[in-house]
Design goal:
Structural class: alpha/beta
Order of helices and strands: EEEHEEHEEHHEHEHEHHEHEHHE
CATH topology of the largest domain: TIM Barrel
Shape: globular
CATH superfamily of the largest domain: Aldolase class I
Number of domains: 2
Strand order of the largest sheet: 7-1-2-8-9-10-11-12-13
Number of strands: 13
Strand content: 15-25%
Largest sheet: 9 strands, mixed
Radius of gyration: 20 Å
Number of helices: 11
Distance between the termini: 31 Å
Length: 300
């Protein structure tokens, strides 16, 4: 069996306790306007073009078997629908301006890579985090990975939007030590309107999970200007966490680290010009969360 992944990040310290390896799976049912990993949304290789590196030599144009690349006004233009992801352009680009993100990798190869750092997990009480995208989109691959890590006695965290069938989550609870549960808004309607996800299902799954394993849940709340960065909205999310008795809440300040990816994917970024937030900006909200008896912090 294989999983479609973007990368395996080693020595991560912000996606669960201790030192961790993060396996990024492709596929996500949500379309959050601020998404920092737009290359994760579809389960297929994503063509990334870095215009700043490009020397306009035309090598990719000449070598593309689909004739899906041309030069117009001294700029490369890609017919992404015609692209068959053969990587001829990537392999022949002398400047490294083109690369594809997303490969089908065997479960065994992923596990082998992750196990390289097992001594660090043991020393730091770390492990592996499976992120995305939404890992539950590739449910069979996720289940296979969890079984392997369980056999190897590796602690596992899963970052999830909660937008999946409850049965999928329920069946895997015994294999997951930490649920990093993303929650963007306190109401189903707002979740659906902004993210295009199934807001009712997300909130229902959160409640069901909390009824079974509240100690495993960390609510992760991306705090985004012009969307949910207001005291009333974030306090309501914190109140939900308090009511459900989740383990902790992480308020994640908005950042712009993923903006360049949109240009490289040929996509528009809706939040251009939005100001980044700092941990200090969230201090009052963090204090409110801690006053409710839940460990609350800014950042992961």
């Amino acid at each position: 069996m294989k999983a479609n992944i973007m990368e395996i990040e080693r020595f991560a310290i912000h996606d669960g306790p201790g030192i961790r390896s993060v396996v990024f799976l492709q596929g996500c049912p949500l379309r959050c306007p601020w998404c920092a990993n737009p290359e994760s949304q579809e389960i297929k290789p994503q063509l990334m073009y870095n215009e700043e590196k490009c020397v306009r030599c035309g090598t990719c144009v000449r070598n593309c078997p689909q004739h899906a690349i041309k030069i117009e006004n001294f700029k490369l233009v890609f017919d992404r629908d015609a692209c068959i992801h053969c990587k001829t352009c990537e392999n022949n680009c002398p400047a490294g301006a083109i690369n594809f993100i997303g490969d089908a990798v065997s479960i065994d190869d992923i596990v082998t890579e992750v196990l390289k750092d097992k001594p660090f997990y043991e020393e730091s009480n770390g492990g592996v985090t499976i992120s995305g995208g939404e890992p539950f989109v590739q449910y069979n691959a996720l289940k296979a990975l969890l079984n392997k890590f369980f056999e190897k006695d590796i602690s596992v965290a899963v970052e999830t939007t909660g937008d999946t069938h409850w049965k999928n989550i329920e069946d895997l609870i015994p294999y997951i030590d930490y649920f990093l549960f993303d929650l963007k808004f306190p109401t189903a309607n707002r979740i659906s309107l902004v993210t295009k996800g199934n807001g009712e299902r997300i909130l229902e799954n959160l409640k069901k999970l909390a009824s079974k394993a509240p100690e495993k849940i960390t609510l992760r709340v991306p705090v985004i200007p012009n969307y949910n960065y207001d005291e009333r909205t974030i306090r309501k999310i914190i109140d939900i966490g308090a009511e459900l008795k989740v383990s902790q809440i992480h308020l994640l300040p908005y950042h712009t680290l993923g903006v360049s990816k949109y240009d490289q994917l040929g996509k528009e970024y809706d939040l251009k010009g939005s100001k980044m937030l700092s941990k200090e900006d969230l201090k009052d909200l963090v204090d409110y969360g801690n006053s409710k008896g839940i460990h609350t912090q800014a950042g992961g």
